[in-house]
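Changelog excerpt

This revision adds worked examples to the README so contributors can see how folded entries look when concatenated. The first example is reproduced verbatim below.
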Amino acid sequence: MIHLLAVLILILESSMAQEKTAIVFGGNGFMGSETVLSLLTQFDKVIVVNRGNWYYDSNLRIMQRKEVIHIKCDRFKHKNENNLLKCEKFIKLLGSITNIDLVVDFSAYKPKAISDALEVLKGKVHLYIYISSDSVYEVCEGYNTASGLSKETDSVRPKDMEKRRMLARRDSYGDDKLSGEEVLEASNVPYLILRLPDVIGPRDTTHRWWTYQLWMQLFTEFPLAIPIPRSNQILKTSYVYSKDVASTILNVTDLSRTKSEILNQSYNIGFEEGFTLKELLYELESEMGQNIDYDLNADENAFTLFPSVSRGMVDITKAKDMIGFVPTKWKQALREVVQFYSGAALKYPSELKDVVDNLLEHVVPDSKRDEFSKLVNRIASNGVESQSQESPAHHNEL
């Protein structure tokens, strides 16, 4: 009997030791919720740490899973303190965990957030994946002039401190993201950095894509030309699909166990294709079967939502070669995204309000606001679908 009990204890301890745990900072919206769902296919426990603001239906998609532990914590509440240390539930939970197989950090917009996380996790982490941005190249010396694409090795800050400060002022987001990368590089934690261009996909909390799509959906009844400044008709930039971000995270987590050479590296990921804003909107218009007017003589300060960078496209060769990155085909992603937002007005009234407010503030003339609001209310009540793919798109350029 004693022997049997000892065996059972060993089996239980072995089972507990093999339990795979991931921590996701963020995980409550766009890419994060997609990633959590992906991780749940291979992890026994996923700890989601965020401020408790849930977007779209992410709460329903995630919180009903028994493997998910949600910790409400604002890691940015007090500027000069490690706010994670004040999250008692989180600290207590960490005390009961010996090993953390994976950390995915979506919400570290400041380098201190990473320093704070590393302090709290105290060497328990096997792999830290930091979600960075192609905006880091905006604060660096330059890009590969032969290809015109930004490579990972181009993330070199200027030696001239005045130029460095000037670039940081111009793009504080890119500066902070690169500083976050530098914190990880200086640590002894195995890490992997994903540099993302502008992200498209379902449940986008920036509402950029949905704003353009709703603008086009309403165009027949509310014909407001979409401005495309001259620079946005020339500059090609990269985009990445949110689902590809989630699948890449899961893939590199698996690879890192057998291919240590992929660790402590940064990777650009994105679609094979790049687009100017003009090309991107034409693609959207064509998929919707719409007939849209564009103002191609728009002022450079006109209202635009893409792109967020000025350095052009990123080179994804390294990700393809080293971590086997295979992006979703553009046409497939485009179709899926358009289909999602075509039916979103009925399902997500709170997010719809944000999109409408964006259009009312930047696009709709004051004299037309009431008329526009009534049209949107009708849509919110009845729904609106894109025109059939059979209707060819025509570009009317002003």
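The second example, added in the same revision:
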Amino acid sequence: MPPIQKISTESVRKIVAGQVVIDLAGAVKELLENALDSGATTVKINLHNQGMDCVEVVDNGAGVGVEDRPLLCEKHATSKLDKFESLYEDGEGEVKSFGFRGEALFSLAQLSDEVVFETKTKGEAIGQRLVFGRDGKLKPSLTTKVARPNGTTAQVKNLFAALPVRRVDLQRRIKSQRVKLFRMLQAYAITCVGVRLTVCDVKVVKGKKGKPDSTKSETKLSTGMSTKISQTMSSVLGAKFVAGMAEFSMSLDETIMVLRGGLSGMSGFGIRGLVAKPPTGEGASSGARDLQFFSVNGRPVDIPNFTRAIGDAWRNFDHLGKKPAVALDVKLPNSMFDVNLSPDKREVFMADEARFCDVLKERLVKFWQGSDGSFVSNEVQDMSKAGRVP
């Protein structure tokens, strides 16, 4: 048995970084959330060579202040959290940003060849281009001035170049990794109303007859700056899909008041969004309508217990084992949920989650059944039976 010794700092950094960002979807997610946290209303994601050569995110947010720029890729450096307790505070002190650990950019720097930023704030006449190495440190000699609008462009070049096995896996499984990536992007595109999100594939086109190479961009996903979830969902999944959905809303104020013994003047908590209309006719099916998107206070997450509760309610109307499409946002006090469970923050722990599942199931059964005890019509199914589409 060899003696116990401390692992080198460089090895520790690579080990930890590989846990924070595990795939292409994770890398894009971190850059996208930084753009959203900056107050951006327009975000464009460019995937060069399907994301293998470079992941680029361009936003029109506030930009990064001059004094903050050297710290962009420093570990545990963030503008979003000053103390641990803020994660669970309600009211003015609560954390409303997607990120809060200060690990993502440091990890991306560790895993890639380099991370490059171009940024400009409102008060600057011209922006800056900054290059960061794998140690997360700024390379001052490569800092240059650049003309650009307000906002930030972040580039991660050759993701997983520092981890050869992970890099080979990315190249071999790029199709499956992109399936996961676009499912994740759909969730943000639907949930983040008021933001125009565009995702493009950028390919290099070889020049002919001595002409230089050029690039070709193909739009893969695009939303307008919609203010309603029905509009963002229509942009992502199509008008026909949305025609089979119904607006759903339920208050959790009374439930939370009982669980907490009062709301201390706070209210407006609940579950809101879109749910599939049930099938028409006994034993009929609504078709392939199993896409489900959940978010807590606007953050896309996975809530397996909600999926089960919704499935239990749905089986009252569809006995073929399929699950309904839903896009639901759960608004809760910060003190009643915790997303600090995994680096990607997809898991969430809710206080009294079983009770929330019960009230959601009960409300959905009543909603789908209708006040007169009849099924609510599924417009998509009706039109498909008649040979019509919206």
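Reviewer comment on example two: The CA atoms of residues 165 and 252 lie 47 Å apart. The longest strand covers residues 196-205.
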